[in-house]
């Protein structure tokens, strides 16, 4: 696995004019793996947008290393980097604690009394978003020690369809309870709409 990132060149409006919806970001990510396109065999690529020190980055987790030149298509020249993620994964053990960040699409299935029984309904209230995160933790091998919603918006999915997604950013602390399930959550993502920038969980060790 490889964890890669590039700083998006938002100062160059002409360069990034196509990045007006999540579908455009998805295409950018997919085009950064020309070797997969050539083979006709596409892998799952997790990605999200991260803001750090006033800059916005595209973060990508992938089974193969991306073409860094193509990853810089909408990024600042020379800012694309990629690191082998496997050594970090191999050092994980049950009981370890980490700070975490997760951008996700929290939804719930409507009940019998809902206007939309059986259908997936976005969770907009913070309490429901945190409850969604707790349920996902229980099925993905980790325990939430603390958590908070630090961001929420409804970005456009496709420019022509005018459909938006419920995007929520969680931060907090966790403990690994089941190593196998937790590694699967890190590498395969959590929740729905993974192709559109949701589901990528990243962690930093707590000293």
Backbone shape:
globular
Helix content: 10-25%
Distance between the termini: 25 Å
Q: Could you say which structural class the secondary elements and strand pairing correspond to?
A: alpha+beta
Low-confidence stretches: none
Largest sheet: spatial strand order = 2-3-1-4
Q: What portion of residues belong to β-strands?
A: 25-35%
The H-and-E topology, N to C, reads as EHHEEHEHEEEHEEEEHE
Supply the number of helical segments.
Answer: 6
Mean of pLDDT: 91
The tally of beta strands, per DSSP, is 12
Oligomer: single chain
- Biggest sheet details: 4 strands, antiparallel
The gyration radius over C-alpha positions equals 17 Å
Explain this structure.
- By secondary structure, the chain is α+β, with helices and mostly antiparallel strands.
- 24% of the residues lie in helices and 34% in strands.
- It is built from six helices and twelve strands.
- It has helices at 22-31, 34-39, 68-71, 86-90, 126-139, 179-188; strands at 2-7, 46-52, 55-62, 81-84, 97-104, 107-109, 120-122, 142-153, 156-158, 163-164, 167-176, 201-205.
- Strands 2-3-1-4 form a four-stranded antiparallel sheet. Strands 8-11-5-12 form a four-stranded antiparallel sheet. It has a two-stranded antiparallel ribbon with strand order 6-7.
- The two termini are 25 Å apart.
- The model has no long low-confidence stretch (mean pLDDT 91).
């Amino acid at each position: 696995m490889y964890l890669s990132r590039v700083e998006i060149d938002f100062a160059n409006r002409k360069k990034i004019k196509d990045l007006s919806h999540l579908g455009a970001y998805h295409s950018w990510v997919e085009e950064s793996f020309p070797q997969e396109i050539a083979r006709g065999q596409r892998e799952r690529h997790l990605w999200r947008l991260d803001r750090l020190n006033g800059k916005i980055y595209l973060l990508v987790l992938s089974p193969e290393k991306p073409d860094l030149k193509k990853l810089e298509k909408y990024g600042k020249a020379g800012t694309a980097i990629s690191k082998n993620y496997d050594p970090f994964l191999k050092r994980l053990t049950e009981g370890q604690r980490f700070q975490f960040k997760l951008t996700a699409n929290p939804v719930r299935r409507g009940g019998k009394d809902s206007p939309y029984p059986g259908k997936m309904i976005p969770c907009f209230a913070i309490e429901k978003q945190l409850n969604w995160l707790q349920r996902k933790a229980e099925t993905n091998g980790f325990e939430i020690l603390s958590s908070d919603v630090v961001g929420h918006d409804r970005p456009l999915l496709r420019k022509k369809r005018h459909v938006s997604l419920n995007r929520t950013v969680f931060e907090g602390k966790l403990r690994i309870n089941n190593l196998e399930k937790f590694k699967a959550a890190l590498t395969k993502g959590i929740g729905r709409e993974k192709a559109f920038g949701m589901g990528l969980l990243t962690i930093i060790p707590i000293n």
